[in-house]
Fold:
Amino acid sequence: MLPDSQGAIQVRPAAIEIAGPSIRAVHELDNVPGSDNVPGSDNVPGSDDARRSDSAAYSELIRTLPGHVIDFGSRLLTPAFVNAHTHLALVALRGVDPGDARHSLVEDFFFHFEERITAPDVRAFARMGAYESLLSGVGLVWDHYYSGLAICDALRDVGLCGVVAPTLQDQAGPGRQAWEDQLEATETIARDSSLANQGVFSAVGPHATDTVSADLFRRAGDVAERLHLPLHMHLSQSIEEYEHSLEQYGVSPVTWLRSLDVLDRPPSMLFAHALFCSQSDLELLDARSTLVSCPHSQMVFAFPAPVHRWVQARIPWVVATDCAASNDSMNLLKELRTLNGYGASQVPWSDAYQKFFATPDVKSARSAWRLRTEQTNQFSAEALLAKVLDVPGRLHPAFVAGVIEPGALANVVVWDTNHPNIWPATDPGSIFVRANATAAIHAMYVAGQEIGRAGAFCESITGSSEYREAREEAGERLVRLAG
Ligand SMILES: [Zn+2]
Structure:
């Protein structure tokens, strides 16, 4: 799956040359021997000599490519997905009932747990979140959490790429005693070339406007500008944050940040949730700002972000899972499926539908249907797919991900297009936006390294001794914390 000259996705035959953590070259082919180039038409394994021998150009390419050549036949290769907002370690809270919906999930629930966890706990729990991410076809996460160096260790343990934003707090929250360490960790990660060679980078991570002072925001802005790092934070994510800003500063969180000049300094900014961002707030954000929609998580801790307003305001946005504690899943593709139905799901709540419901007739039914027609298909499958591929993959100045092109991180998923979940696999948009595709992962490469074993992707990971040891350690730590 390659971009054409306009950036649109196309499926074309190609060989991908990998060197170190990156793609060195993409060799496009006229044809894959033995295939009519319809994904799923002839997915026999690459050991089938007959399929490989009937194209002179193909044979010549295979002969001249340096190093070890793996033939995936006519299987579909895509970039691995990019999950633009995660807290991997909070997978430990999956399935815990947040209880009374009037309470804040962040302040009353997460903070209570997070006051007690240590850096080794964070590493152990984040490994589990990283494994789940890989099994969902995610090759890179934008993670925001306490003990940032422990998150880096977890990513390296498991082989997942990430942009780690060590959480900065000084006003409230479990990290308020550690902001100096975490600001230092941000710099340490950014300067570590061995981490970069494994696809691990850093971003500057103030937590939110109700937990971070003006002084710490300014320090964060200094580091972002000096090291050319993106800013990654929550913004207007809760009613508590919005009220705090109005009470403390007399203005909205966005207006307050703008007054600090923080928004002019980083090369790019990633703002999670933006639920209490008004039209005038959106007008204060410039082209370096990207908003994050996490539909399932937002429906648990608050409500879905008004992405149609973001589209109207021409603000770039991406799609992420947030943490497993408020989502119960790190499967990024499920979020695309939800957004695919975003427009239609507005209809039952509309005045037009309420009118039909109270006084049904053809006119009011037509009126509700007209709304459905207007609201549906707001986003093409291709546009949604871009929000988990190259849009978040191009937000960091230090690397490119989410695309198969020379220089990008070699994060590639190989799909078994004969798998019943995605067969006949004629349209990538349909596969990844609407189908339940992740069971059809045949093989995966992250930062140039193979993850698991081709043909037994899931079993080779969950059946490995590394996974078993990671799970046992995480389980023991969870029991200890609960005790
Ligand atoms: Zn978050």
About this structure: The chain is about 40% helix and 15% strand. The pocket of zinc ion is lined by residues 85, 87, 234, 272, 322 (CB under 6 Å).
